Amino acid sequence: MRLAPRQPCERESRAGSLQSGVACRILVTMARTAGFKAGPVLLELLLWLCQTLVDSYSLSYNFTINPKAGLGHPWCEVQGQIHGNMFLYYQCGSRKAKLFGPLGMKVNSTKTWERQMETLNYLMEELKKKLLDVKAGIFTKNAPPTLQGRMMCPWKEDGRSGGFWWLSISGQICLLFDAKSGNWTVLRSEGGVLKETLDSDREMTGLLTRIPNGDCKSWLGQVLEIWKRTLEMTAPPSTGPGTPRSPATALTPSSWILGSVLASSVSLRILGQVL
Q: Which residues are in coiled coils (predicted)?
């Protein structure tokens, strides 16, 4: 499936992507110059992340799993974003997603989000089981661990696809998974325990591979077409130099990309000290 050429309303995003490309190259150069301790695997990941953020559309899902959540609190939360703009929020157990903004309203009229929720809810259930299995090997404290994660699948105009998983235990990023190559990158000792548990389960690794490479790619194609039409309908006729910009107009893919790159630079410094 090939997307239509970018419309005028996307020019700002393209310009922002070029700026982000410069920021990414600076960040990678800094990492190489400093002799980044995590080694070539993580440096390769950084290069991939920069290229993905700059050159492609992307659909991502952020999630948090707390298997011992208190009464009245969800044990799992999922947030769907396209180019960093949230359009979907879901609490496990509610069986109903909240959809936001013009994009969310239009997605609501399709069956796409229902399929997403079915797949993601099943994945959350399986990850919850795994987290309970490995908690003894990760934590010595009484408090049970929480699992945070992010899955991102890009849409590349040249037809390439792939996806990554970032997994954190109680706020500490510890494990990365390349869904295209099937490679794991362990960043902390907790990540090693989690990797052994996930990688030993063929069904789980199948889910982590299939969702970014298959399901998410299909979802992105459908959601992106809706998003592009929404941009065309909601874009202002013109925005002169003296025209104030609304928060909705100011929130662009480029702003999210630059924020991600800055966050990555902080992560590099932290990881360099830990590893």
A: none
